[in-house]
Amino acid sequence: MAAASPPILPTSVPAASPAPAPTAVSSNDAAASTPAAAFAFVGRLIESAKRSLSGARPWPELVDRSALSRPESLSEATSRLRKNLAYFRVNYAAVVALSLAAALLAHPFSLAALLALLAAWCLLYLLRPADAPPLAACGRTFSDKEVLGGLIASSAFVVFLTSVGSLIFSALALGAVVVFAHGAFRVPDDLFLDEPDQAAGAGNPLLSFIAGATAGRV
Fold first, then answer.
1. Quick one: which H or E segment has residue 158?
2. Where is the chain membrane-spanning (predicted)?
3. pLDDT tens digit string along 58-115?
4. Which of 15, 48, 63, 103 could form a disulfide with 206 if both were Cys (CB 3.0 to 4.6 A apart)?
5. Which residues contact 61 (CB under 8 A, 6 or more apart)?
6. What is the pTM of this model?
7. Could you tell me if 94 and 53 are in contact, meaning their C-beta atoms sit under 8 angstroms apart?
8. What is the rounded CA–CA span in Å between residue 175 and residue 47?
9. Beta strands per DSSP E along the chain
């Protein structure tokens, strides 16, 4: 008698689990990333300022009255200015920045206009997440290029067509006059450069941060 064949077990193919749907970045996440980017921007700015000021020369050397004398010729004044600019470059930049800060603090309206312009640049372009939805206002959607064009036009209007521009240029001119006068009258015989000059902006973390923030938007 033939042996009975083993029973056939039922086979079933498990149903394939559905692929997880791609997670979309919510508006809350995009909004939450803006303060984080702002804090990162401020941190980079403070770090860059500290690094720049660390290269300043001792201020008593800058204000040493015994080292001041009238140059005998224009060529001597030019030579002094060139050497002093190379030696006191960080101090001179701080002097110009203080002149600009004092002028803005003395004119609160101009300071408020510049702060509002800076806030618009940060919120609408520099610190805006790359995956953020397009800006919509007055029932219309604006692309990144249109937002950038509007910011540039607003900046040109504030700087060149209001009193803010003349205030900035006057403060910078005053600071430059102070720097040039000091550089021409300061005798640089006791000054020695102990570090090589570097290209302006090389390795500046602030410039790198701004370049990374604006990459891919234009």
1. helix 144-160
2. 86-105, 111-127, 148-181
3. 889 898 888 899 999 999 999 999 999 999 999 999 999 999 999 999 999 999 999 9
4. 48
5. 67, 88, 191
6. 0.64
7. yes
8. 24
9. 135-137, 140-142
